[in-house]
Amino acid sequence: MSKATVKKLHWRSKVQESFVPLGGGSGELGLAIGGGADYGEFPFVTAAPGGGATVGDIILEIGGTPVLGMTLGDVRGVLNSCPHPIRIKTVSPGSSLCKDLRLYLSKCFTPGSMDSQLQQLIRENLYLRAVPCTTHTHATTCSQYRY
């Protein structure tokens, strides 16, 4: 079979599930994370001294909660609130799914496809967690606006 006939596997087929152990006697998590929507990136593994994850991998879920589109603080909050050992889903970054959140959101996908659904999930997380909500009071009415 030639290289031209080999179909490239979708990133979804490369998702890995693992468990994050507590660090040796210290009781700390065996995982450090970086990125987050506040940095325009997907959350990713920056250190995994306890094993269970690979440095550089994009974190898709923590304890069953999708974390794409969350700020770094929110991702850390999810990580710290899960019972131990923590189950995470990760994927190695590649050409179709790199660490750049803005690049992924700018791509056009077929409506209803896995990537299109993931974009929608990311936008919902961004809207819920990263978009400020302010209350404006007027002389005659009180309204809430979301920007």
Please give a quick description of this structure:
The chain is an alpha+beta fold and 147 residues long. 22% of the residues lie in helices and 24% in strands.
Strands, helices and their partners?
Elements: E1 16-20, E2 32-34, E3 44-47, E4 58-62, E5 65-66, H1 72-81, E6 86-91, H2 101-106, H3 114-129, E7 133-137, E8 142-146
Antiparallel strand pairs: 1-6, 2-3, 4-5, 4-6, 7-8
Q: How many domains?
A: 1
In which range does the helix fraction lie?
A: 10-25%
Q: What is the percentage of strand-forming residues?
A: 15-25%
Mean pLDDT reading? 78
CATH class: Mainly Beta
What's the architecture in CATH terms? Roll
What's the end-to-end separation, in Å?
52 Å
Oligomer: single chain
Radius of gyration: 18 Å
Listing every helix as H and every strand as E from the N terminus to the C terminus, the arrangement reads EEEEEHEHHEE
Domain PDZ: 26-94
Protein name: PDZ domain-containing protein
Report on this model:
This is PDZ domain-containing protein. Residues 26-94 form the PDZ domain. It comes from Seriola dumerili. The chain is an alpha+beta fold and 147 residues long. The chain has one domain (11-128): Roll (Pdz3 Domain), CATH 2.30.42. Helix content is 22%, strand content 24%. It contains 3 helices and 8 strands; from the N terminus they run βββββαβααββ. A 4-stranded antiparallel sheet has the order 1-6-4-5, covered by helices on one side. Strands 2-3 form a two-stranded antiparallel ribbon. A hairpin with a 2-residue loop joins strand 4 and strand 5 (65-66). The longest helix has 16 residues, at 114-129. The protein is globular, with a radius of gyration of 18 Å.
